[in-house]
Amino acid sequence: MHANWLTIIIDLIKLGRPLHLLGGAIFYGIGVAAAGPELPNSFLAGLGLVTVLSAQLMNHYSNDYFDRVADALNSTPTHWSGGSRVLPEGRLPAQAALIAALSWGGIAIGLALVCVVLSPNPTLSTMILGSSILLAWVYSGPPLYLHRHGWGEVVGAWLVPGGTAMTGFILQTGTVQPVIGLVILPLCFLQFAMLIAVSLPDVVGDRAAGKRTLAGVSQSNHALGCRSYPHRISLFGTVYHRGIIPLPIPPHCADRP
User: In 3D, which of 145, 146, 141, 148 has the Cα closest to residue 209?
Assistant: First the structure.
């Protein structure tokens, strides 16, 4: 009996993909560091981090729940894509993921309200925290299901490095300054390219489930050109085949699908 409960707890933890929380924590720390060498409010910095991680967990659980059909059709999952595999393998009921997502969402909202009260700029803090939590939900959840309609990579590219770093910065300074924009802009572009790259193994399953991701759209338009050129896995590949930016394709890749 104890072993059974332990297995359930372990699977529930795996369902939340805790390893992926590391990126959010790092980006949040970058935002706090960009606020200056001194930490005006260390308690608020810690509370903001817990809030961000709670919103991330909400997103992870909701992803597995709302993406479970595509994940079940995905025969080439990786450590970074294809979900946690807990639901497709039948180790937990799908309802467990939804309950966990709603629970962590409630925790994130509650913590965000405390952050707003303690923030040096409640209005700005409400805007960044509210929009980030909302986007984290509608990324894969209702009513927008952004990741099904080609907006997942764009939202993820902003939300993971941009929204988390901006939250850390605003909670400490109460302002938006050029320095934080300079810090997060390259990170957002890198995250965008990475999200498309890690989505490639999911394309077949996504198409079968009726999802339209930028990776799938780009691949269907032959925008990737050649798999040996991973730097093309970006938006430029898509606009190239729409005649906007002429990017050369090496001759040895020309005959590849």
Answer: 148
**Mean residue pLDDT across the chain:** 84
Tokens of residue 25, six digits: 């924590």
- φ and ψ at residue 149, rounded to 5 degrees: -125, 25
Under 8 Å between Cβ of 84 and 57: no
The CB-based long-range contact list for 119-128 (8 Å cut-off, 24+ gap) reads 119/44, 119/170, 119/171, 119/174, 120/40, 120/41, 120/171, 120/172, 120/173, 120/174, 121/170, 121/174, 121/175, 124/170, 124/174, 124/175, 124/176, 125/170, 125/171, 125/174, 128/163, 128/166, 128/167, 128/170
Q: Which two tokens stand for residue 231?
A: 């730097």
For the chain, how many residues are written?
Answer: 257
Q: How far is residue 195's CA from residue 81's CA, in Å, rounded to a whole number?
A: 9
Using one digit for the tens of pLDDT, what is the confidence trace for 202-242? 888 778 877 877 777 666 554 445 444 444 444 444 443 44
Read off the tokens for 208. 């079968």
Residue with tokens 């005006």, as numbered in its chain: 40
The predicted model scores a pTM of 0.81
- Token readout for 174 is 């109460």
- In the numeric block, which tokens belong to residue 163? 């929204």
Burial 156-182 (b: 16+ CB within 10 A, else e): bbbbbbbbbbbbbbbbbbbeeeeebee
Please tell me the distance from the alpha carbon of residue 119 to that of residue 27, in angstroms, as a whole number: 19
All domains of the chain, ordered by start, with CATH? 2-198 (1.10.357.140)
Q: Is the dihedral of CA 34, 38, 43, 44 positive or negative?
A: negative
